[in-house]
Amino acid sequence: MNGRGEDSSMAIEHAIIKIHQDKRKERQFQVPFNPNTLKISAYAGKVHEIRDMSGSGKNYSYKENEINMELSVQLLFDNSNNPKYNVQAQIEGLMEALKNSNTRVISFYWGKQYYYGILKQVAADCNMFDITGNPIRAAVDLIIDIIDME
What we know:
Blueprint: E1 13-20, E2 26-33, E3 39-44, E4 47-51, E5 59-63, E6 67-78, H1 88-99, E7 105-110, E8 113-129, E9 135-146
Antiparallel strand pairs: 1-2, 1-7, 3-6, 4-5, 6-9, 7-8, 8-9
């Protein structure tokens, strides 16, 4: 906690998200996020078992060599200082990108870090509302399957 009663571990930064609709068209957004929530995970492909149908009773297994990587990050939308504007439009925009297979290709830029992939999951947690029930603060968790660009 700092002297103002705020959690200093929650420094807010801004990243750029680009939604690629096709090679010529993309939409770009500046989004606030907490860098402490930026996480990259990697996991190996599945192990498969093949049964020998010749009657020998032997089973064979092989592994796929594919390594899957994903980026997870929490975006923070806060209009509590200006409750005339709610955060519903930002949340719905990300949800719509997930619904349409043509807008799931996404890039995340922060400083020199760049991740390109497929939007896999969007989860919103609205945690403050105005007096009419419109959300004015929300945390939105994104998961992006990273595509290897090599």
